[in-house]
Amino acid sequence: MTDVAADRGYTILLAHLHKPTSSLPLETLQSLIAHFLSLHPAPAPLSATVVSSPLFRPFAHNTLSVLHTALRGAVHLKWKALQDESNSLLSLGPSKRVQMDAWARSVVGGFTGAQSVVRLVGAGGVLLGLEDLKKDIGSGNGRRSARGKAEDEVVIALAEVMELYGRKGDSWESEFKPQVEAGEADTLSLSLVFASQFLARVDSQRLLALPLPELTSHFITTLESAFYKGSFLSTLAKSISTSSHNQISLVSPRPDESGDYPYSDPLTSPLQSTLRTLSSSTLFTHVASLSRAAAFVLPLLVESRPREGWTTLSDVTQRLRALAYAVERDWSQSPLANVESEEAISPESRDTATQLWTALKTQLFATVMVSQAVLGSIVYSHRPDSLVTELSAASLALGTLETLRHLSFVISKFGGVEGGFGELKSAFYSALDILSVDASLSNELVRGMSVADSEGPSTGTRSRVFDRAVLAFRLSCVEQLILVLDAQAVETHVVPMCLPHLNDPTHRETYELAHSVVLGVFASHARKHMGDPSVDAEPSFVEKLTPYYTRCLLENSADEKLSTTQLRLAFSALVSSAATSSRALAHHALSAILALIQTSPPAQKQRLRLALISSLSGLDLPLLSIFADRARETILAAGVEERDELWEELFKELVVNSGDREKEWAMRWWADHRPRNAPTVPAAMGEKGKGREQLAA
Asked: CATH classification of 536-697, choosing from 3.40.1000, 3.80.10, 1.25.40, 1.20.58?
């Protein structure tokens, strides 16, 4: 083994470690620490010197990162040195794993007596290094192993950090706490930034020794601080002006008050300064790891301490909602909320706009990540009976949906919920699944959706673009909850929310969602009516709605409105629902489409014929026997090029998709009326059971 103490580089390192400042670049210092730690067979003295060095005071992210990375790198260098040594013919003694374990224990042993923040960062670096080499050296984490000792040190140091910095002391007490560098996050937040990178590598049984409710709260507080508690858009209104080209400007010329003006940014604004500071901050750049850590701790807390866990889940949900609300409030009152495209923003402001959207999307990602943990925790745990009645799985799901609603203007940038990233869709649909178990809260959610926010073009200070994003989110919620909503909520809230948008294809998302929700109303009615023939409250409303929606669908059969597939599925669902309560209603809808076929242009005629044919499989025998013949007449009146498609679709609806009671009649009818080149009845048997496409939404 090299005589480390005689190495001039080692002497230089020690000299620099004993000084409060160093002329060495941080990268060089990091490399020297890792190198000489890996050379020592018993590195505890050097380890102790490193963690007690004044170079790491006051606390700063860049210097603590040097310590963290150096210790992680030292583990890798030590393992490589042991591998090289084992390849030598002169290699004798303990195995590589034994030597590695002894060395790492010695490194962690050198942390004894050091300040808790430094111990946390250093032990985390060793732990991650051992985790990196887990396949080579194993993952044993017994108390006597190096990994076990590193995990214990992380838990003890983190507990001390929380005790020392987690509560506000008086000014006298604060004098004895090591301070952070100017411009840095507070000591606790800085410590959590590092802890978030390795906390998940600690055995969960060890983590149970920590005060998990307080730890979760500290993580959420740190996330709130990363986004300035939702106030980072508070300067948005005063930063906006209109450029000479009638575009929105987020920056303005800087007054030439200094000699260095030619070398500084000539354009600035309060918003730009805020975003620049935000995006470069330590907390913001570590939002992902902080969110993951919070999401990791929550299930542990709920599983180990259910009562405290559920109370913490409620607190986390409320705080995320408040954070989202603050951002939504400032955004909705700004001209940016009404911007349709990037062209409305002046070229010199687009970099600032990009920074703004990066911050908003980062907040959405963090919110979704933590919300997923909240929802997962309540799904896989039993609610303690001792909790207040108001705190339930459904109420937490409702809070999550309200939080996402506040961020719906950000979600719209991903194309809405359906176009969003997988984690967003998972959180959204999980929340709806949990909420749907509680019909009362589901109806409360829908009733809380102000119709005023959904009545087409906005007036005053409200934004049409912003309102559409909110409406799209609300419609997506309602679409999934239709089956559990009561008739009054559907009649007084759901349908009025949809009506202004059923004939406006300009905005496809709200247009298609509105149709999808109305079709859900019909499908829900059909299911309830078939399951309980005594139901008589809802059919009266559906009967009133059917003629209107029939006319609406026919109006939307023109070009650039509903697609052929959408029209077919919608008309089929309408007729099927109407037929469950009144043959007269179904007859009315079918007669209306037949009448329109007579007067429509050729392209629209074909769509209408296909829609008529699609509805046949949902009819009972008395209606089917009438309208199968009428469908055949429309096919015979069509051009030769259209007939093949129409015969094929008629065959599928009658022979393949018709109900069991109508099947025999349909097969006989087809045998009697099919054209010469059409498929025979036996050919259909292999196609039975094919599923239908869903209405695109």
From this structure: 1.25.40
